[in-house]
Design brief:
By secondary structure, this protein is of the alpha/beta class. The protein has 2 domains: about 10-145, Response regulator (Rossmann fold); about 155-320, Rossmann fold, CATH 3.40.50. Helices cover about 35% and strands about 15% of the residues. The protein contains 12 helices and 12 strands. Strands 2-1-3-4-5-6 form a 6-stranded parallel sheet. A 6-stranded parallel sheet has the order 9-8-7-10-11-12, sandwiched between helices. Helix 2 packs across helix 3 (about 55-70), helix 3 (about 55-70) packs parallel to helix 4 (about 90-100) and helix 6 packs parallel to helix 10. The radius of gyration is 20 Å and the shape is globular. The N and C termini lie close together (about 5 Å).
Length: about 325
């Protein structure tokens, strides 16, 4: 396998709470020369809505966008094309890039399930290698590799600090997808008396909140003041994680892979309360550290939060770092 140092990488990754920038930074730390473009023509609300609702309407703009990427990179000779999620790419776009850079190894990494991104199925065969966080997708596709997400170096620093979480007992920070609003209410009621619960509920745009309120009876009494519409800054999120004992994770019902929050809990050596039973299949799962709850009828034993945290073996802990993720995705180790 070739080392990353000196390799020229075309990274196509959507904006996702800054994680795409962390990937670029780590690639560069390991010696790669990186050109980073978003996964679709714009990060605006309208474009995101079109991707989800009417991707065919966005196709002409996406093709123009990826043609522009090719034009701007005409003098480059890429060794790798690394696509994250790929929701803005169609067959025309990826074939054009592969034709322009015939010597580049093309890798697709899916941090969502194919059930949530049906159009992506049409481009899988155009890549040399496909990886996914979703075990059912990996089991169903012989040429797809299971590779969970990662924690960044900032969470390792939290683990190494003297702080053990004293501000709150349980913290939730996340987008209010699917049934999360109801699950949060149930978890709040299930927490033992006296336990401190902090919630940061996020919508990408106020219009999404009002649309949910009109369409979903569970949001009938919800107030806009209960939500934020701008993501927390990275320092603010890290400060909250540093001050909590446990992170709450509520996976999307149509997703079987591990969420980013799950790996961040591992990286920060914080306990995890999750609705995702898939975590039980992974090598870092320990009953002192991870509690799986029923999203419809959660039960949280009072002693779970007081049990001592059990550190995973070093090789297990390191496997889920961003450093190892980059090495495995680029096949440089």
């Amino acid at each position: 396998m070739k080392p990353l140092r000196g390799r020229r990488v075309l990274l196509i990754a959507p904006r996702f709470f800054g994680y795409e920038l962390e990937i670029q930074k780590k690639l560069e730390e390991l010696g790669a020369l990186v050109d980073h473009y978003q996964g679709h023509p714009s990060a605006g609300f309208a474009v995101k809505a079109l991707i989800q609702l009417w991707p065919s309407l966005l196709a002409p703009y996406s093709r123009q966008y990826f043609a522009r990427i090719g034009a701007e990179s005409a003098d480059k000779d890429y060794d790798d094309i690394l696509v994250i999620k790929g929701e803005g790419l169609d067959e025309v776009g990826i074939r054009r890039l592969r034709g322009q850079f015939p010597n580049a190894r093309a890798t697709l990494y899916l941090w969502d399930s194919l059930r949530n991104c049906p159009p992506t199925r049409r481009i899988l065969h155009l890549f040399d290698r496909c990886l996914t966080i979703d075990r059912p997708d990996a089991d169903a596709h012989a040429d797809m590799v299971l590779r969970p997400l990662f924690y960044t170096d900032a969470y390792r620093e939290i683990a190494a600090s003297a702080s053990h979480g004293s501000d709150t007992d349980v913290l939730f920070v996340g987008t209010v997808l699917a049934d999360r609003y109801d699950v949060l209410r149930r978890v709040r009621s299930a927490l033992p008396e006296g336990r401190r619960f902090s919630e940061v509920r996020y919508f990408a745009h106020p219009a999404l909140f009002w649309l949910r309120k009109l369409q979903d009876p569970r949001f009938l009494r919800a107030r806009a003041s209960e939500f934020i519409f701008t993501p927390l800054s990275r320092p603010a999120l890290l400060a909250m994680v540093r001050g909590t004992k446990a992170l709450l994770d509520i996976e999307h019902p149509q997703q079987a892979g591990l969420t980013m929050r799950t790996l961040e809990a591992l990286g920060a050596r914080r306990k995890l309360i999750t609705t995702n039973r898939a975590v039980l299949e992974y090598d870092f799962c320990h009953p002192n550290n991870i509690l799986v709850i029923d999203r419809n009828n959660p039960t949280i034993p009072d002693d779970f939060l007081d049990r001592p945290y059990v550190d995973p073996p070093k090789h297990v802990y390191e496997r889920y770092s961003l450093n190892r993720w980059v090495s495995e995705v680029t096949q440089t180790e």
